[in-house]
Amino acid sequence: MATQKKLATSVAAAALLFGLAACGEGDAEGAEGEAATGQAAEEQSQGGGSSDAPSQQQMPEPDLGDVPDVVAEVNDADISGEEYSSAYETQFSQMAMQSQMSGEEVDEEALQEQTLNNLIGYELLTQEAEANGYEASEEDVDAELESVAESNGMESVDEFLSMAEEQDVSEDELRADVKQQVLINQVVDSLDVEEPSEEEIKQTYEDFADQQSSQGQGQDGEETETPDLEELRPQIEEQLTTQKENEAVQAHIEQLREDAEVEVHV
Fold it and tell me: Where is the composition biased (Acidic residues) (predicted)?
């Protein structure tokens, strides 16, 4: 039976999940970088940064002119302009904050294409989950909510729901999107993903150690000491597993798209 189901009633919720996932999938090195970026931003907001701090406080606005009512058709389902705009605004805000620190402007054309492709891929995975008869119980949704909240340092699901409400996403909308995510997770779990090899683990560790060595002394003037491989092994394995899973998902989406009827209107 044809489905008109979109990314729930508000893609803001899905975009919120995308943003949370991006925060939770980084390795220890990425987390340290984000912390340093946040600290630098705080120092500038307090007047301790460079003389151009006031200009950095003014966030750029996304260009969402001429967005059609329907940005893409995926088989028998539409992706609306409203859904696309909500997702794009969330992604743009994240990129704009990063660009303030790097000094590089946001490549809006590339970001718009990436956002649209993400939504098309999300819809294709959802359609496959429904075609395969996957189901998501309320218990599954509760567990996923708890997992997302915990992985992003939140003390409770209520805190996650409060953050969603601040972005004008109701609990019902969020639960609908999380249910959709649970279904997609089942598709992802069905994919054949290779485990990281010992060679890949060692190479990743060596690259990290080389980077640490090139950074030289820490803020206290002492040489930075790189933890040994066995201490970092769990993080490295998780990082590589996530990378391989993402590659498998992307390849699967590309295959689904080849077999699907996809018409883009932007």
Answer: 136-147, 220-229
Question: Is residue 197 domain-resident?
Answer: yes
Whether 156 maps to a domain, the answer reads yes
Residue at 33 is within a domain: no
Reduced to 3 DSSP states, what percent helix, strand and coil does the chain have, rounded to the nearest 5?
65, 5, 30
Instruction: Please count the structural domains in the chain.
Output: 1
Helix/strand/coil for 198: helix
**Is 171 in contact with 164 (CB distance < 8 Å)?**
yes
Domain membership of residue 189 as a residue range: 11-27+44-201+226-264
Tens-digit pLDDT profile for residues 100-144: 888 888 899 999 999 999 999 999 999 999 999 999 999 999 998
Tokens of 119: 């939504």
Read off the CATH number of the domain in which 109 is found: 1.10.4030.10
Give the torsion through C-alpha atoms of 251, 257, 259, 265, to 10 deg.
-170
The tens digit of pLDDT for each residue in 194-227 reads: 999 999 999 999 999 998 887 765 555 566 788 9
